[in-house]
Design a protein that fits this description.
Blueprint: E1 5-13, E2 16-20, E3 26-31, E4 43-48, E5 54-59, E6 65-69, E7 75-80, E8 84-90, H1 97-109, E9 113-119, H2 124-127, H3 130-141, E10 145-148, H4 157-166, E11 170-174, H5 181-188, H6 195-201, E12 213-216, E13 222-225, H7 227-230, H8 239-244, H9 270-276, H10 282-297
Parallel strand pairs: 3-5, 8-9, 8-11, 9-10, 11-13
Antiparallel strand pairs: 1-2, 1-4, 2-3, 4-5, 6-7, 12-13
Bound molecules: guanosine-5'-triphosphate and zinc ion (ZN).
Length: about 300
């Protein structure tokens, strides 16, 4: 292979990476110290060294990157180039609407498309109360795509719908504990689709659950997953990010009396007026205030 080929990082164990090239071949690679931040999902340029081993020489520009603190408190990039956030919720445990809002805001700040998944549809009639259903309807009215799934079910229509949504793009699974992310992953990835598992089988790599892996889904989609990816740092949202992550505020941007209006206590706030006239959903606005308070207190 010629020098300077492009590949995508499909997994990383310490200093060692596995890349995949256009032909679907896997290449074990090392990386130079200055490229230490290379992460699963990165597109890189690599070359064969004189000794025969492969080495990453450049990380190509990223669309975005997810990071989280490691055990020493150092911020590390854990995945890059994410197009879709699959935000998994369930009826039991009950929906955490504030967490959902945080993921939606984060998706917006990453320029990634959110897909709101409501798993455990078999428990819906038993556990979804009218308040929950009203909340969910608000998201649909705002234009968010909502998909109902049953990871424990034998029907694969839901899985096919997720794959269609992701098609040709790279997704991650996020959501609170117990909603069924692992169950959905197992249903999404019948064994043959798990390329990294195949490497582990041939002894080329070690399989550890904390390492982010890139998987191929049906319909040419890609999924990056690891426990670390599932709960990447959600803490650091700025007030402008918070506001930009609320599409219902958009028609009123620039109409508040103060340029830097937080839509909280300021007089002449167009967003507050819109809440009073029911143009902005009351529940979303109240949760926005809660998030605003937690960001300011941070
Ligand atoms: N009734 C029902 N139970 C489900 C469904 N999907 C998953 N479960 C169950 O929900 C529980 C939690 O599922 P997991 O897949 O482990 O959830 P998770 O989101 O990966 O949880 P964490 O690993 O803690 O983040 C398990 O007991 C599953 O069997 C579903 O569609 N219906
Ligand atoms: Zn305002």
């Amino acid at each position: 292979m010629k020098a300077g080929d492009v590949g995508r990082v499909i997994t990383r164990y310490g200093a060692e990476l596995v890349l995949e090239n256009d032909q679907g071949e896997h290449i074990r690679c090392t990386t130079r110290r200055k490229l230490e931040h290379v992460a699963c999902g990165d597109y890189v340029r690599w070359q064969r060294e004189a000794q025969g081993n492969a080495s990453v020489i450049e990380i190509l520009p990223r669309k975005n990157a997810l990071s989280r603190s490691d055990i020493r408190g150092k911020l590390r990039t854990i995945a890059a180039n994410i197009d879709v956030l699959l935000i998994v919720n369930s009826w039991r445990p009950a929906p955490n609407w504030e967490l959902l809002d945080r993921y939606l805001i984060t998706a917006h700040s990453l320029s990634a498309d959110p897909l709101i998944i409501f798993n455990k549809s078999d428990l819906r009639s038993q556990y979804a109360d009218t308040e929950h259903l009203a909340c969910l309807e608000e998201y649909q009215r705002l234009g968010y795509v909502v998909l109902h799934t049953q990871a424990s079910g034998v029907d694969y229509q839901d899985i096919a719908a997720i794959c269609r949504y992701v098609a040709g793009r790279t997704a991650i699974l996020v959501g609170q504990s117990g909603v069924g992310k692992s169950s959905l992953l197992h249903k999404l990835l019948p064994k043959k689709g798990i390329r990294v598992g195949a490497i582990a089988d041939t002894g080329e790599g070690r399989h550890t659950t904390t390492v982010a892996n890139l998987y191929h889904l049906p319909a040419c989609g890609t999924l990056i997953d690891s426990p670390g990816v599932r709960d990447f740092a959600l803490g650091s949202l700025t007030v402008p990010e918070l506001q930009a992550g609320h599409p219902e505020f958009e028609p009123f941007m620039g109409l508040c009396r103060f340029n830097n209006c937080t839509h909280h206590h300021e007089p002449g706030c167009a967003v507050k007026a819109a809440v009073l006239s029911a143009k902005v959903p009351q529940r979303r606005y109240e949760r926005y205030l809660g998030l605003l308070k937690s960001q300011i207190n941070n």
